[in-house]
Structure formats: C-alpha cells, structure tokens
Amino acid sequence: MVRLPAASTLAPSGLVGKEHGLELVHSGKVRELYADGDDLIMVASDRVSVYDVVLPTPIPGKGQVLTQLSLWWFGQLADVVPNHVISGTDVPAEWAGRAIRCRRLEMLPVECIARGYLAGLGLESYRETGAISGLSLPPGLEEGSRLPSPVFTPTTKAAAGHDEPMAFSEVAALVGEGVAASLERATLEVYRRGAALAASRGILIADTKLEFGLLPDGTLMLADEVLTPDSSRFWLASEWQPGRAQRSLDKQFVRDWSAGLDWDRRPPGPAIPDDVVAATQARYQELFARLTGGE
Ligand code: PZK
Questions:
Q1: Which DSSP symbol is given to 163?
Q2: Strand pairing class (49-50; 18-19)
Q3: Is 39 in the pocket of ligand 1 (CB under 6 A)?
Q4: pTM
Q5: Nearest partner of 203 among 180, 225, 233, judged by Cα
Q6: β-strands 39-44, 31-36: how paired?
Q7: Residues 6+ apart with CB under 8 A from 10
Q8: Which whole number is the average pLDDT over 52-77?
C-alpha cells in the first residue's frame, strides 16, 4: 500500500512559498494547494488557459465562479460518492469565495475521465481505431456525436508531458481490482448524474475529468474539482451540431479572438483585450446561473 507523504515532503522546502502562514504544496496552471495543519486549502485563481497556455490577463471572478460551481456539484453528488470537502467558508479571509478546505487523501494516480460525446482525445482515438480505451464504438460517429452510452477512459497522471490512455487492466494493476471497479462506477455515475442535470438546463457536458483519493480506512473519495469548465467540456445544447467542432461555452471568445492573432500557441500567451475579458467573465457567470439556478 502506498503511504501518504507528510506535508513537508510534497514539495521540496526552500522551493515552496509561504503565504498567510500556510505552506504551498502544489501550484497548478490555474490553482494552488496549501497545507493547513492536517487539511489542505485549494485556491482557484482568475487565471485562464487556452491551448494549454496560461494567458497573462486574468478573468475577474473566474476562480470564485469555478469554486462555487464545484462546491455546488459536490453537494449534488454527495449521495453518489463522498468527497474531500470540509468547508467552503472556513478559509483564510483573503481567499473567501474561491477556496475550499479539503481533507488530505492518498490520491490515486489515475485521471478518471468519462465521455458522453466525441471530442478531444476520444475523437482522435475513435478516428484512428474505431475504439476508445479498448471499447469498440459503432461506425459513422462524427465529431461531437453523442456516444451510445458514456465510457470510462482513464489516463495516467504524467508529472510532465502528456497523459497516456490506460486500459482497465492497467488501472487495476496500479490500484487493485476492487478500487479500479469503484473508480469506473463512481466516474460514470458522477458523469451520468451531472450530464442529466446539466442537459435539463440546456447544457451538454461532453466529457469530464475526475480525481479520487482514499481515506486511511480505504474509503474512496471524490477530490479535486468537479464538473467545472476547467475539468469538463461544456456545450450549449441549442448550438450542438455533430459533424463540426463544438463551441466551448466558456472560452470561445478567447479562442475566437486568439485565432485571429499571429500567435503560435506557445508561451508566453498574448494579453486579452477588455471586451474579450468582459464577454468571457459574463459567460462564466451565465454558466453558473444556468446550472445552479432554479433550485
Ligand atoms: C491533491 N492535487 C491536484 C494540483 C491544485 C490541485 N484532497 C487531496 N488530498 C491530497 N492531495 C490532493 C487532494 C486534492 N484535491 C490534489 N494534488 C494533490 C492539484 C495543483 C493545484 F489545486
């Protein structure tokens, strides 16, 4: 069994920042993770990435919207699988609204992806082999097509470079047969429940990436963020049209604007103009209101 590293071994000390008296244990493209005693505090920034490049201009309010959306989904899905959330309010005041106090888990080294529509790497795999993660799909599907039923397409968690697809047997070899089966079940059930709820509000969730961890007693817990536009592809149902690339509900303004620039999609990215920032900000807020509204 893999032992949970002590907080001080998660990142080499001397390289970690100290802010608010908390130790920075992980810095992602758009989020930071701090240790607070036995707990972790996950902080979402307003940074935005397109084509895997973080742009120099923040989208004000993005971190708050994604944090509140994730908290809302954790609540909606709590009967499917328990989650790592301790509190969305008991966080340092400067991060109020965009941070979550979480339980520290033994994270499982698998990116758990569920796909209900053909896009991204799932589309590439289907075009090359007619299958995704070893699961044969019917012929004649197009970009954006809905799959006959959602599929579990786990990948490795590469520290650097690209995540590689994993067969179910490879997941089982890493985490054990029982945990692997639980990961597949929980991933597909979270996706089905989330996609059905979103669809009832005019939003399609094409795919989503989930991360899980274990409590010391072996209980499987949903961790990280859940069903946010940074972890999932959201499409407007009214615009959905298989056979072409679908418009991303959140970042389309940024993508459309950047497509007209002389930028090779390598860092550093270009600064985003005010009108594109404002339109993108409005998109995030609209997405949140649509999904969570009408409670
Ligand atoms: C954990 N990440 C990803 C990287 C972030 C997040 N509950 C947990 N217990 C232990 N470890 C993690 C979690 C969670 N969630 C998550 N890395 C470790 C990550 C960078 C920034 F906000």
A1: -
A2: unpaired
A3: no
A4: 0.92
A5: 233
A6: antiparallel
A7: 25, 26, 35
A8: 98
